[in-house]
Amino acid sequence: MIRCFFLLLALCLPGSAWALCSVVSTTPVAFGSLSSIAVRTTAQSSSSLNAGLSCTGSLLSLLSANDHFYATVTSSQSGLRGPTGDIINYTLYANNSTSYPLTRGVAFDFARNGILDALGLLGSVVPKTAPIFLRTTIGSNVAAGIYSETLSIAWSWNYCSGLGIGNICVGRDIGSGNTTLTVNLTVANDCTITAPNINFGSAPVISAFAPVTGQTINLACTKGSAYTVGLSDGQQAVSVGGRRRMISGGNYLAYDIFKSAGTTRWGSVGAARRASTDAEVNPGNGLGTGSQVFNYNAKIYSDQNTPPAGTYQDSVVLDVGF
C-alpha cells in the first residue's frame, strides 16, 4: 500500500502528464478523377488526415530514443488496381514531403525525425490522428476506370506517457492494433492530339489550286479506349449541301476535307465520323503511349467562281468521342 501511495502522489504533482493512444478507423484516400494522361505524366498527390493512430494528452517533453510508434503497411496488391488489371504505383510518406517514404512490409517509426512532435499528436488535450500522404509514380499507362487498393496498417507503440518530479518517466503507454485504409483513383479517357494546319497556298484562279494530300492527324488516346473522331463544318459552312468555306472580308472560298485519300467527306456526326478502328496506323483501341494516325486530304471545289484576291481562312474543330 505504501508503494502505491507514493506512485499516485508523484503522478498528481504539478507538471505531470498522461498521453494515451489507440487504433481507430481510418479516413479513405481519394485522388479524385484524373485523365489517363495526367496519371501517366505527372505525379499526383493525396492524403488522409487519419491513418488509424489517435492520441491525446499533453506530453511535456520530446520523445526519447526509447520511445517508438511503428506503422507497418502491407497489401495483397502492389498498387492501385483497375478493371482490366492495370496497376498505378504510388508511394506512401510519413509527412507532407518526399523525405520519409514508407516501405511496404517494413516498420516505420513515426517517433523519429520529429514527425509526431511536429504534428503535436501528444501535445493536445483533444484527440489527434496521424496523417499519411501518398504520391503516384510517373509512367503508369493504364485504361480508364476506378482504381483501388486496401492497405493494412499495423500500429505498435511504446512511449513515456507520464512525467513525474524532474521529468522522470513514471508511466508508459504500450499498445498495438490493426486497421485498414482504402485508396481510390478514377482514371478518365483523354487524348493527345496533333493536327497540323492545312495550307492550300496561293493561286490566281480556282482551277490552279492543287489538292492537299498526305495530311495526317495523330491521336494518342487512353489505353484500351474505343473512340470516334469528328471534324466540325467550320465557321462558314453552307447550310445546304454542307460545304465548308473559308472567308476573307465578305467573300467565300468553298473547300472540304476528305477521309484518307478518298472522296468521302470527314464530318462530325454519324457515319461521317471516323472510328479508332479506321486509323491507317495502329487501328483499334487507344494505345495510351503510342499514336494512331488518320490520313486525310483536302481540296478547294473547282465548281465555283474565283473570288476576289485576299487571305481566306476557316477554323475547324476536331472532337474525340468515347
TrEMBL record:
UniProt keyword annotation of Methyltransferase present: no
UniProt keywords, alphabetically: Signal
Domain Spore coat protein U/FanG: 17-153, 179-317
Pfam families: SCPU
UniProt keyword Signal, yes or no: yes
Domain of life: Bacteria
Signal peptide: 1-19
SMART domains assigned to the protein according to its UniProt record, in alphabetical order: SCPU
Transmembrane segments: none
PANTHER family registered for this protein in UniProt: MEMBRANE PROTEIN, PROTEIN U-RELATED
Protein name in UniProt: Spore coat protein U/FanG domain-containing protein
Source organism (scientific name): Pseudomonas prosekii
